[in-house]
Amino acid sequence: MGSTIPGPDGRPRCRWCAAAPEFLAYHDTEWGFPVGDDRRLFEKLCLETFQSGLSWRTILAKRENFRRAFRGFEIDAVAGFTEADIARLLTDEGIVRHRGKIAAVVENAKRAQEMVRREGSLAAYVWGFEPQAADRAPPQSASTSPASIALSKDLKRRGWRFVGPTTVHAFLQAMGLINDHVPDCAVHEAVERARAAFVRPG
Fold this sequence. Notes:
By secondary structure, the chain is mainly α. Helices cover 52% and strands 3% of the residues. This is DNA-3-methyladenine glycosylase I.
């Protein structure tokens, strides 16, 4: 089985994006492109928290509902959520109603506030774990990495929840800290150019 499939324009894409119709646009315009915005980084960590044990398709289909429910994933807003907010979210059929994960997102927002105060931004902290090219495994060949293990361990030490190495690796892939598009993918070079032009925060 090859590592790519032809897209609707005939150009090759990573094989995984054929698994659901909504994956193609996500693959072509988001996955792997570098992100330095705290809100987007926090959102992705939260969505990966909710994905734990589920499929990304489920989360992606509900992403706009999550954004509405969690006030756009603005860190300060989510950090201010109360038990009443958690109870409200447990009745929201548009999201994944898992008390532990909902509570974790609220607590992680508080930890993110601490990180912003200490590091200057969530982005500056996260990008400090960007792996060197020499330390990278071949694209899509592993579900964890030395970088994801290190970041997961440090986040847990700081009190973050639901941030295991596999969850964090998916975050690193999606937010462009690594380019995990296979070399033959039509988007691989676009991501490489974006990463080369990206100004690392901090």
